[in-house]
Specification:
alpha+beta, DNA-binding transcription factor activity, GntR family transcriptional regulator, Chorismate lyase, UTRA, transcription regulation, 6-stranded antiparallel beta sheet, 8 helices, 28% helix, Arc Repressor Mutant, subunit A
């Protein structure tokens, strides 16, 4: 019978972590113990643990060993777009409700709309859009990413052309668009899951390939879409809660 590969050993250790057999803070068996248990060499055992470190399941401490990474507290992200009409940032309101200091960093630039974004905004491919990239933080730790796009044919020359600069900075899409006569009527969200990219992992402090939720959100007036965004949410940090209004007949 062939000896296990490091991937198979990593799979078994990951299963033990996910099932709770190894709890947060527990020390993993030593390389020698793993080599003996799985009948492999020390290098194979070390590679298995290194894979779990890269994925974010385990943290290595020099001279001490490898430990199951403590799970961050699971927080709720409320998907309730019309709350923005109350003023201010919905994200900051969510964080405040959970006794967390919410904030963000952002950078905006004008780009030519890629084909997929152009389709979502109902503009011609290559039309100019304002792209704003965000890193959202809770208690100064990165917790969520967002990349938003707004068509410059709507916002150019207005006080809201830069989402995070000017008199309406940081007020949310609904309120900002209202200032220029664009009244949001509804929003759509498509939620998928995939492994994080290397850039996303680095910006969020995740292990490479950690599963993240991706929310593709688009805001519409009665006439057209006016903003679209890709929001990246680590699955081990947030749960999504949707509030859906029901019209009475």
């Amino acid at each position: 019978m062939a000896r296990p590969t490091y991937q198979r050993i990593a799979d078994e250790l990951r299963r033990r972590i996910v099932s709770g057999e190894y709890e947060p803070g527990d020390r993993l068996p030593s390389r020698q113990a793993l080599a003996t248990e799985f009948d492999v060499g020390l290098r194979v055992a070390a590679d298995a643990v290194a894979a779990l470190v890269a994925e974010g399941y385990v943290v290595a401490r020099a001279g001490s060993g490898s430990y199951v990474r403590p799970r961050p507290p699971l927080r709720r992200l409320t998907r309730n777009w019309y709350r923005e009409s109350r003023g201010g940032s919905p994200f900051r309101a969510d964080m405040h409700a959970q006794a967390v200091r919410g904030g963000w960093e952002s950078a905006s630039e004008t780009i030519a709309a890629p084909e997929g974004i152009a389709e979502r905004l109902a503009v011609a491919p290559g039309a100019e859009v304002m792209r704003t990239r965000y890193v959202f933080t809770g208690d100064e730790e990165p917790v969520m990413l967002s990349t938003s796009y707004e068509p410059l044919e709507i916002t150019r020359g207005t006080a809201v052309v830069l989402p995070e600069d000017g008199p309406h900075a940081g007020r949310g899409v609904v309120e900002r668009m209202r200032e220029i006569g664009q009244h949001i009527a509804h929003a759509t969200e498509i939620v998928t899951a995939r492994p994080s990219t290397a850039e996303e992992s680095d910006r969020l402090g995740l292990g490479r390939g950690t599963v993240v939720m991706v929310i593709q959100r688009t805001y519409f007036t009665e006439e057209r879409p006016v903003e679209t965004a890709d929001i990246v949410v680590p699955t081990d940090r947030y749960e999504l809660a949707y509030t859906i209004p029901v019209e009475q007949g």
